[in-house]
Amino acid sequence: MQFGNTRRKRGRDPMKILTNENGQLRTSIYHKLTTEPDILPYTSDHPHHIHRNIPYEALLRAARICSNVDDFNSERIRIDMSLLLNKYPPNFISKHFNRFFRLNNAMPVLNQLDENVYHHLYHTLLHQPTRHEKKLNTMIQNPIEKPSVLQPKIWNNDLMYPRYLFNTNLTSNFPKQFYKWWKTYYAFPASPLQTIKVTIVTNTNRTLESYSIKKKPPRDILTKMERV
Question: Coil, helix or strand for 68?
Fold first, then answer.
């Protein structure tokens, strides 16, 4: 039996496969034969933390779906190959694969395909709410009286989020230079700005897709056009 993933984005998310093995449900990931390894290329003009998160999030999704360690290992190999095809360095992939297993206390799964350790990893991550689920649960508690959109945001004078346009060739070292400049000229000892926490936020350049592809109009507008 195949059940579609209810969290589809742009129709490219894999489908879940449920199989009954002697009364035990086994879940795995199904990929269409025509599916291409569509991952953000390593050479793209994006901040490096985005590239670092891709291997981790891919393994996290696989561990939340695959209930069997062999299925998870097959998916891990597929992720590895997809990253290589998108020019991710092998050392980079190994480093962040190890980071996933190390942070989740599951190194035996990577080294030995330990079924017991993976069983614990699978159930831990499966019942761990995502950021979207946490936000949704907060809205469900009292969606009428306190919708999240109308809740006032608390202004914290001790936080500052300056933004800058990221460019691989020009601004890759800008955060380090900015923090050094900030501490030297503004947050020096005895300065009133010393207690302010500064976090640099990057803005990425527009992609070719954003220039050439327009979003589909809302359904009500299309319906009105058909009636006319």
Answer: coil
DSSP letter for 203, please. E
Query: Which long-range contacts does 84-90 make (Cβ < 8 Å, 24+ apart)?
Result: 85/37, 86/37, 86/39, 86/40, 86/41, 86/42, 87/41, 87/42, 87/43, 88/42, 88/51, 88/55, 89/42
Quote the Cα angle for 149-13-116, to 5°.
100
Each domain of the chain, given as residue ranges in start order, spans 2-133, 159-227
Verdict on whether the full-model pTM lies above 0.70:
no
Q: Which residues contact 25 (CB under 8 A, 6 or more apart)?
A: 18, 19, 67
Q: Mean pLDDT for each 10-residue chunk of the chain (228 residues)?
A: 39 69 86 80 85 94 93 95 94 96 94 94 88 71 61 76 80 84 90 88 74 69 61
